[in-house]
Write a structure and sequence with these properties.
The protein contains no helices and 16 strands. It is mainly beta and 191 residues long. It has 3 domains: 2-62, SH3 type barrels; 65-125, Beta Barrel (OB fold (Dihydrolipoamide Acetyltransferase, E2P)), CATH 2.40.50.140; 129-186, Beta Barrel (OB fold (Dihydrolipoamide Acetyltransferase, E2P)). The strands form 3 sheets. A 6-stranded antiparallel sheet has the order 1-6-2-3-4-5, with no helix packed on it. The protein has a 5-stranded antiparallel sheet with strand order 9-8-7-10-11, with no helix packed on it. Strands 14-13-12-15-16 form a 5-stranded antiparallel sheet, with no helix packed on it. It is flat and about 70 Å long. The termini are far apart.
């Protein structure tokens, strides 16, 4: 078991029957009274962030977390099926454990985060951005690049997002998977 002097950014700990990653921490030694560690923790199982204060020297339980590379194969009634890129072992994950499953397409590489002590899937993370093709959007007009006006567009995965007016059908666009927003159009000659 570790104690509060071992706390650092990225460390995963078990607290209140959940697993948290340390986002930021600060050792505080006031002029009067005992020292303590103020932390900001992000849950690995839920999308929540908490502030927690530990007294100095308190024992903490470190969780062993492992990130494994997987490739998305298909979706069916049981969930999303992935294949480990090294061992070719297949794994089915329920949609609630996947961050932004609407941006998954066949062949997409992801990271599956395991609680190594119990060999349990905690969540599945897509890369920070993905490249997807526009399947349908209203035609854009030449010269519509100066304004920040957006129009609806359907991606190859079936999800609808908002894109600038100059985007056309069959354009390849970069999407931020953390926010679900359009980032840029990809020039396929440079790609």
């Amino acid at each position: 078991m570790a104690n509060t002097s071992d706390i650092k950014n990225g460390l995963c700990i078990v607290l209140n029957n959940d697993i948290y990653s340390v986002v930021e921490f600060q050792h505080v030694k006031p002029g009067k009274g005992a020292a303590f560690v103020r932390t900001k923790l992000k849950s690995l199982t839920k999308e929540k962030q908490i502030d927690h204060t530990f007294n100095a020297g308190v024992k903490i339980h470190i969780a062993r977390i492992e990130r494994r590379p997987y490739q998305f194969l298909y979706k069916d009634s049981l969930g999303y099926t992935f294949m480990h890129t090294d061992t070719f072992e297949q794994l089915t994950i329920e949609p609630s454990l996947i961050h932004t499953p609407q941006f998954l397409k066949e062949g997409q590489h992801v990271e599956v985060i395991y609680h190594d002590d119990e060999n349990v899937v905690l969540k599945c993370e897509l890369p920070p951005s993905v490249l997807l093709r526009i399947t349908y959007t209203e035609p854009g007009l030449k010269g519509d690049t100066a304004t920040k006006t957006l129009k609806p567009a359907t991606l190859e995965t079936g999800v609808e997002i908002r894109v600038p007016l100059f985007i056309n059908n069959e354009d390849l666009v970069k999407i931020d998977t953390r926010t679900g927003l359009y980032m840029e159009r990809i020039n396929e000659q440079k790609k």
